[in-house]
């Protein structure tokens, strides 16, 4: 009996030791090659561990929240502007990820203490309150009367909030464990106790990226992370009619991979011409697939920029299946994920790069943009189920304008967040962030919107500050209802810097 108990204790100690060593330590020593806006929760955890390992040598600004936050503020640009205009030497860090609601920002608060922030910035928008879920679950329901406990249970579902199980299982248990059924409760207990269970999915994705980048073709991916293309490349790696790059040893040895669609070929072949000014090569693209192209040896004798020009282009709105998309950008070929690099980028989990979709609205007037907005974001739900949440948000804004404002669930957590920073005497800036004027018009003039602003304003006192800037950015600065384009983010940089800079003593 004693021997069995000894072996059981030994096994548990061994299991916890391996769990701690591999999943809490070693996995964060590997390079993170998950790009911006992908593998959200691993990127968040990796960034947290990175910040925690840094000695604090400057004042720290930490930006928390959802994708609203990390599409709004560029950390490097903000730090540069604060240095130039306010002589503030600060570090700016993100601790934000897609879908992060106030409940989970509240659960993050205990994590912030070791980071010693001097200012925490929290940009919020309508999407963060998850109010559209009421109408999804209860088509005839109302946010001013719905049973709050039902919405809490919905927020704990894995589909709505995987971070509750992957990132904050223990904190979630303590906060809302009483709302869980027995099966859900047991999953959270196991996830709290064993990191390998908690991280098994998100850890695997980074390992797959590492293996793919080193040994694969890099032709299966969600987000382009190759070299800068002067003519532009979109977030998925699609070029326009022309793209330029410099030759590399890897290209010479392995060639370059290009995805060719049947819509580019349109029943015939398509020529692509590579030219460095002195050397020219014409390749005939015949098959709709990922194609390996080998450039002629003379291209590699000098480090001269090569320009590839396609004979024709195709349009995603005329395509079908996986290639269908509702935009009017001319499309060329898709580049492999790490195109033009000898080694894949790492540590870029919160570094955003400009893409062609960020610039498509620059020359649009309001009338053209509005027509494009409805077409691109709200039409064709039967063919594009992925836009369902945007359609649900539109319906929610149109319905909630006829309701009373009720500060329940996520609004209660915003109150708790503000109280926490006030009690800790840490500067906290809550921002009612800019919203696209089109979607804003659906509910801005309602009593609900006015009362919700009054509620947020009421949180301001002591070290807690509230800033309402919901209407300061023109529609051309938005890619949808609430996410900024890269141009919009650059436009807002000096505005954020002005407000943030004035929070620090002169």
Q: How many strands, what sense, and barrel or not for the largest sheet?
A: 5 strands, parallel
CA gyration radius, whole angstroms: 25 Å
DSSP strand tally:
14
Assign the CATH architecture of the domain at 34-135 and 386-501.
Answer: 3-Layer(aba) Sandwich
Query: What is the typical, i.e. mean, pLDDT?
Result: 92
Uncertain runs: none
CATH topology of the domain at 34-135 and 386-501: Rossmann fold
Distance between the termini: 70 Å
Give the structural class: alpha/beta
CATH H-level superfamily title of the domain at 34-135 and 386-501: SGNH hydrolase
CATH class call of the domain at 34-135 and 386-501: Alpha Beta
Largest sheet strand order: 2-1-3-13-14
From the spread of the alpha carbons, the general shape counts as: globular
Helix content: 40-55%
Number of helices: 19
β-sheet strand percentage: 5-15%
Write a structural description:
With 506 residues, the protein is α/β, with parallel strands linked by helices. Among the domains are: 34-135 and 386-501, SGNH hydrolase (Rossmann fold, 3-Layer(aba) Sandwich); 242-343. 41% of the residues lie in helices and 13% in strands. It has 19 helices and 14 strands. The strands form four sheets. It has a five-stranded parallel β-sheet with strand order 2-1-3-13-14, with helices on both faces. The protein starts with a helix and ends in a 5-residue tail after the last helix. The model has no long low-confidence stretch (mean pLDDT 92).
